[in-house]
C-alpha cells in the first residue's frame, strides 16, 4: 500500500478541485495512482449526477457577455438545487468558466458548448460532473444562447437568475446602448412571447381565440358575435404580449416599436432571447 502524503492530496485537489478528504480517500483506494484517483472522483460525480437527475434546479446564476464591437452576445444559465450552493465560489467560478468557454469557442449550441475541451483536456461537461461530486448537488446548464446582430444589448436582473440578449438592426450611427438596455429590462419584466404577432405560434393563437369566445359566451354575447369579439381580444393579447407592440414600461405613451423609431429612424429588434432559472 502506497503512503499517501499531504503533498499528494494537495496535488490531486489542485488537479480536480475535489475536497481534501475525498482526494485522500480516492488516492488511498487507487494506491497512490493519480489517474486512477481522478477516475474514482469522476465516478463519484457521475453517481451524484445519476442519483439526482430528477431533482429540481431552482437556484443558480445567469451570466452574459457581449463582444467588444457589440455584434455578438452570449447568455448562459447554470442552475443548482439550493441557494447556498449558488453562492459558493466553486460554483460561481464554474459559471464564469462556462461563459468564458462560450466566448472562446463561439459554440452554436448547448451540446457543442458542453463538449468543448478545457485546458486539462477534459470536456466542460466533465468539469460540471466533477464539481457535482464535490458539492453533492445536481448542476445543470439549463440555457445557452448565442446571438449575432448589428448591435446586441444584454441585461442581467438583480437576482442574477434572469437575463436577456436583444438583437438590434437598422442602427445607423446612433448610440443604442441605453435603449437596448431598456428594451432588455422590459423583456425581463414583461415576458413577451414573441417579437410581433407574426411570431406567435398557431397553437397560442387558436387557444386565445377559444378563450375569447368562451369569455364572450359566458357574458351572454350572441353566438354570431363571438368570432368578432374573440378577434378583438386576440389583438389585445398581441398588444400586451408581443415585444414591439407592448407599451414601454417607463413611458406608456409609446410602444417599444415607437421608442426604437424615436431613437433612430427605422431602428428595430430582429430577435431576443430571455432565459430564467425557475423552480
UniProtKB/TrEMBL annotation:
Family, similarity comment: Belongs to the EF-Ts family.
Keyword Disulfide bond recorded: no
Molecular-function GO terms, alphabetical: translation elongation factor activity
Assigned keywords, A-Z: Cytoplasm, Elongation factor, Protein biosynthesis
Gene: tsf
Organism the protein comes from: Hymenobacter rigui
Function: Associates with the EF-Tu.GDP complex and induces the exchange of GDP to GTP. It remains bound to the aminoacyl-tRNA.EF-Tu.GTP complex up to the GTP hydrolysis stage on the ribosome.
Signal peptide coordinates: none
PANTHER family xref list: ELONGATION FACTOR TS, ELONGATION FACTOR TS, MITOCHONDRIAL
Compartments it resides in: Cytoplasm
Pfam families: EF_TS
Protein's UniProt name: Elongation factor Ts
Top-level taxon of the source organism: Bacteria
Listed GO CC annotations: cytoplasm
First-listed, main subcellular location of the protein, grouped into a coarse class: cytoplasm
Domain Translation elongation factor EFTs/EF1B dimerisation: 74-276
Amino acid at each position: 500500500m502506497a503512503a499517501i502524503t499531504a503533498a499528494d492530496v494537495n496535488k490531486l485537489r489542485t488537479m480536480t478541485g475535489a475536497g481534501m478528504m475525498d482526494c485522500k480517500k480516492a488516492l488511498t483506494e487507487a494506491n497512490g495512482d493519480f489517474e486512477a484517483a481522478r477516475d474514482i472522483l469522476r465516478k463519484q460525480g457521475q453517481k451524484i449526477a445519476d442519483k439526482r437527475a430528477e431533482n429540481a434546479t431552482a437556484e443558480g446564476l445567469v451570466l452574459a457577455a457581449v463582444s467588444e464591437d457589440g455584434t455578438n452576445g452570449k447568455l448562459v444559465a447554470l442552475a443548482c438545487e439550493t441557494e447556498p450552493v449558488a453562492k459558493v465560489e466553486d460554483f460561481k467560478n464554474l459559471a464564469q468558466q462556462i461563459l468564458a468557454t462560450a466566448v472562446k469557442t463561439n459554440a452554436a449550441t448547448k451540446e457543442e458548448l458542453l463538449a468543448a475541451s478545457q485546458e486539462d483536456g477534459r470536456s466542460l461537461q466533465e468539469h460540471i460532473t466533477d464539481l457535482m461530486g464535490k458539492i453533492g448537488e445536481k448542476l445543470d446548464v439549463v440555457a445557452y444562447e448565442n446571438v449575432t446582430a448589428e448591435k446586441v444589448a444584454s441585461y442581467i436582473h438583480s437576482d442574477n437568475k434572469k437575463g436577456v440578449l436583444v438583437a438590434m438592426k437598422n442602427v445607423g450611427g446612433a448610440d443604442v446602448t441605453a435603449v437596448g438596455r431598456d428594451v432588455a429590462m422590459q423583456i425581463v419584466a414583461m415576458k413577451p412571447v414573441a417579437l410581433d404577432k407574426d411570431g406567435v405560434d398557431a397553437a397560442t393563437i387558436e387557444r386565445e381565440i377559444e378563450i375569447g369566445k368562451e369569455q364572450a359566451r359566458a357574458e351572454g354575447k350572441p353566438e354570431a358575435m363571438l368570432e368578432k369579439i374573440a378577434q378583438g381580444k386576440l389583438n389585445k393579447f398581441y398588444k400586451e404580449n408581443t415585444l414591439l407592440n407592448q407599451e414601454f414600461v417607463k413611458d406608456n405613451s409609446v410602444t417599444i416599436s415607437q421608442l426604437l423609431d424615436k431613437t433612430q429612424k427605422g431602428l428595430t429588434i430582429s430577435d431576443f432571447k430571455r432565459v430564467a432559472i425557475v423552480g
